[in-house]
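#onboarding

Welcome to the new folks! Below is a worked example of what a typical request in this channel looks like: someone posts a single protein sequence, and someone else replies with the predicted structure as tokens. Don't worry about understanding the tokens yet, we'll cover that in week two.

Example request:
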Amino acid sequence: MIELLLTSFPAIFRYYQLKRRGEAMTVWNMRTAVFLWAFLAFLLFVTIFYFHPKSYSGLLPYRTVSIVAQTSGPVTEVAVRNMQRVSVGDLLFRIENNTQKAALKQAEAEFDKITAAAAKASDTLKVAEASVAVSSASLDKLKGDLENAQALVARNSGTREAVRLAESSFAIGEANLASAQAQQSLAQAEISQTIPAQRKAAEAALESAKVALGMTEVRSFTDGVVTQLAMSTGSPASTLILSPAMVIIPDRPNDLPLRITAGFPQVARSALYEGMPAEISCDTNIGLSFSNTVLPARVRHIQPAIATGQIVPGGQLIDLSQRVTRGSLLVYLELEHKDQEKIMVDGTGCIVQTYTNDLGGFTGHLIAATGVVKAVGLRLKVWGALIAGIGLAGGSH
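Example response:
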């Protein structure tokens, strides 16, 4: 161990001291040197492991998009293949759509019927307006006849019977005018209220039919690569999210930095801080030449909560004694050099080594210098991962 080598100077000094004196080296005369060696080694161990936390659970997470149909039916066309790149709006597959087409035609017919009804109501209003005009003119004439009959009676030149006939005709004329006005109001209400309401309902039904027909064509909502395509022409389209027809691995947005996540022990919270330098070595980047194997990075965010402590509503009271597993502290890291992001493989596992360098004074510089030990240890572990990865250490890989 490097720590033992660095702290072995008391034993080495005592050994040369005894040799110069010509004394034999025994457990008794070496006890103080060995004890001091063990104490210094333990102190160095604690210092290094406390101020430079390491995580073996580093991961480069990525998202997937499950593709499911929004309507059921047999698949009539599959427009993509496995590992094919797709863009937003590209057709993925089609579903049999005879029922949706028939519903669309019916909705279009209903809409045309409402349009014809609107034209008919407009003509009806014109007829009602003409009828009102005729009835109004006729009423004016009958009113004049009634006034003439009443004037003749007043001059004893007419008869009461003629007045009664004129009054009856005038009343009939008023009724005809009221009827014509009612027909006009009805036609106006038909145009201003009934027809618009029916038109909105027909438009909604037409739009719904178009949407239902559109659901028979499943298109991509993201740019990415198709994988796990598990359907063919004639297969029933699944609408269950747990049984997707295919999975798309979306492209990472250019403005979204690549972030590696790592779980650290909770006791490391006091040593970790945002902006802390780190080194990352991922399994997919390990090579014999060690080129781009250990990548510089920095801590960007520390999750302010431990995942295992979350509580969700349930039908049973929570028994904390059953929560024996201690959760890890989730830390997000970003690579120092953005051009190295292109060599990273989504989903790869990583070793993350952090280094404390924010302490002041001589002691702070001394603690920062001890990070060299962890850096050497990281590279030795990378060699071990290489040996295990190529199968020399046994295992199934």
